[in-house]
Amino acid sequence: MREQWLPAPSGLRVCYTDFGGSGIPVLALHGTFGRGRIFAGLARELAGVVRIIALDQRGHGRTDRRESYTCDDFVADAAAVVERLRLAPVVVLGHSRGGITAYQLAARHPELVAGLIIEDVGPVMRQPEIADPVLPVRGWPAAAPTEADLAAALQARGIPDASYFLQSAVLAADGRCRFLFDWEDMMAVQLSGVGDWWADWLGSACPALVLRGEHSSMLPARLATRMAAQRPGTRLVDIAGAGHWVHDDAPRAMAAAISDFLADPAMGGGPGRVLRSPGG
C-alpha cells in the first residue's frame, strides 16, 4: 500500500493509494469524511482479483483543499486521474458520495468507465426519500489531545461509533490528534450531493453492481430495487448484517459480490470495454 501524488489539470495536487498486487484495476472513490485508505480491508479480501487504486478526493485525506466542491469538480478530478494513470476503461467503485461521482463519471465520460460498483447510495439524495441526507457538522472539533478524546467528542455529538471518521485522523506536529478534513468543507461536499440524480444514473450503459447494506440509512430497499430495475445491465446485491459502510461491516461478503460481478461475461461489454489486469 503506497500513497502517491499527481497533479490534476485544475492545479489540484491529488493523493491516491495504490494497494498494488495483480488483478483488474478498480478506481475507488470514498464517501464524505473518508480517504482512500478506508478500502484497505476490502483490498485484502480482493487480493489477486482486483488491484484497488483509491483517491483521496479534494478536501479529503492528503489531497489539497479547494473553495469549490461541486459534482462537476469531483467528476473532473476523477476523470483526470483515470487519464493520467492510463487506466481507461476502468471499473469504478464509489461509496456514498463517491458513488454519486462514480455514476456521474460514467454518464459524462463513458469512454473512461468499463463498469460501476455502487456502494450504498442511490440516484436520489434528498428528503423525503432519504431521511437525513446531510449530517450537520458545523463547529465540530478539529483536534483533541488524543484519538480517544476525539472519538469522545464525536460520540457527544451523536456518533456512537467514530471509527470511520478516525480513519482520517492523524497525529499533528503539535502532538494533538487532528482530522485531515475541514468540517466546513465537509458541509459543502454533502450539500453538493443533495439532489435528484436519476438522469446521471440512467445515463450510462456499462455493467453495474449496486451493493446495499441490509441496515442502510442511505439507500432504502424500495429505492435500490427501482434503481436496479430501471437501468439495464444492473445487478443488486443486499449484504446481510451491513449498514451504510459495507466495506467495513462485511468486507468478505462485499468482496465475494464484486468477484462474481467481475467474472460475469457481461463485463466484457463489447468494443473498448474489455477489462484488463495491469500491463494486460
TrEMBL record:
| Gene Ontology terms, MF aspect | hydrolase activity
Record bears the keyword NAD? no
**Which residue ranges does the record assign to the AB hydrolase-1 domain?**
26-257
Q: Which domain of life is it from?
A: Bacteria
- Supply the InterPro entries for this chain: AB_hydrolase_1 (IPR000073), AB_hydrolase_fold (IPR029058), Carboxylesterase_BioH (IPR050228), Epox_hydrolase-like (IPR000639)
Keyword Signal (UniProt): no
Q: Sorted alphabetically, which keywords does the UniProt record give?
A: Hydrolase
Q: In its UniProt entry, what is this protein called?
A: Alpha/beta hydrolase
Q: Which organism is it from?
A: Nocardia speluncae
Q: What is the lineage of its organism?
A: Bacteria, Bacillati, Actinomycetota, Actinomycetes, Mycobacteriales
